[in-house]
Specification:
Helices cover about 55% and strands about 0% of the residues. It has 11 helices and no strands. Helix 10 crosses helix 11. The radius of gyration is 19 Å and the shape is globular. The two termini are about 30 Å apart. The mean pLDDT is about 80.
């Protein structure tokens, strides 16, 4: 828990990392000081995976490494968990790629610790989703049935039963 992000009368910088996108607002951190992180570029994701499992393992099977990185969305937490699992179970990246191949069971594979959000991607997602308004959760649930490659504003409005202007705002 962080109650005051800046020490009083200090010229130092404080960095707070959190999956909670509302924390900075609650701590009255000015918006221009917020930094949101996107998924890693593929090359950096592969480098991170290599640092965890060993660069030689990534180099030995680059196709499997590429797929693993893609399967976990190039997310640092998921890459850390995958790397730890590969090391703990003494798996090859090809074996991990096979385990992650099935999208429906992928989140169940990305668990180091069942109850720790730092070791469980599903817990992180559930925490983030729980902080959304009921309306936004319903909206996200409705558009999740749209094509993964994309969908039109009209299609999103149709599946969410919202007017196009309201749909445009939520997207």
């Amino acid at each position: 828990q962080v109650s005051t992000p800046r020490p009083p009368n200090s010229a130092c910088t404080v960095v707070i990392t959190t999956p909670d996108r509302t924390l900075a607002d609650r701590l009255n951190v000015p918006r221009e000081q917020h930094i949101s992180l996107n998924p890693l570029p593929t090359d950096r994701a592969l480098t991170l995976l290599g640092r965890i499992v060993g660069a030689e393992r990534v180099a030995a099977n680059p196709e499997a490494a590429d797929k693993v990185v893609d399967y976990v969305g190039r997310l640092p937490l998921a890459l850390r968990i995958v790397g730890a699992l590969v090391n703990l179970d003494n798996q090859t990246l090809h074996q991990m790629e096979i385990l992650l191949r099935e999208e429906r069971t992928r989140l169940n594979r990305l668990i180091l610790d069942q109850n720790d959000r730092d070791g469980n991607v599903r817990v992180c997602f559930e925490l983030a989703i729980s902080r959304l308004s009921v309306e936004l959760r319903q909206f996200m649930s409705a558009i999740s049935i749209c094509a993964p490659a994309g969908f039109s504003l009209n299609a999103a409005a149709a599946v969410t039963a919202l007017a196009e202007e309201n749909t445009r705002i939520w997207l």
